[in-house]
Amino acid sequence: VQLQASGGGLVQSGGSLRLSCRASGINFRINTVNWYRQAPGKEREFIANITSSGTPNYAGSFKGQFTISRDNTKNTVYLQLSGLKAEDTAVYYCNVPYRGRDYWGRGTLVTVSS
Predict the structure, then answer these.
(1) Which residues touch 15 (CB under 8 Å, ≥6 apart)?
(2) Comparing C-alpha atoms, which of 93, 92, 86, 83 is closest to residue 112?
(3) Do residues 48 and 56 touch, judged by C-beta distance below 8 A?
(4) Which of 6, 29, 76, 109 has its CA 20 to 30 A from that of 92?
(5) 50-59: long-range contacts (C-beta < 8 A, 24 or more apart)?
């Protein structure tokens, strides 16, 4: 199982980015996919997930700012980041629980300049 997160970069405060998480080695369409982030000096925190049927679930603090979606034909889950602030600077990771294990991508860095 491999997860590849991409789409991060440097963006100005108030800007937007779309992150992608592409999976290989699994029957992707049956899996829930999670997004997390880890800011410098902080614990990794859960952002959102999307079920196999496409139902999104968000941690309360991200609801309305970030949007998760998936395209099973491309084995890809997206995380649309909007209204970015300096405190959103973090490495963003995707995660798939699969057959009793947690699989993580390498993460993609989002840097928001104020």
Answers:
(1) 84, 112
(2) 86
(3) yes
(4) 29
(5) 50/77
In tens digits, the chain (114 residues) has pLDDT values of 899 999 999 999 999 999 999 999 988 788 999 999 999 999 999 999 999 999 999 999 999 999 999 999 999 999 999 999 999 999 999 999 988 999 998 999 999 998
Provide CB contacts within 8 A for 62, sequence distance 6+: 47, 48
Cβ atoms 21, 34 nearer than 8 A: no
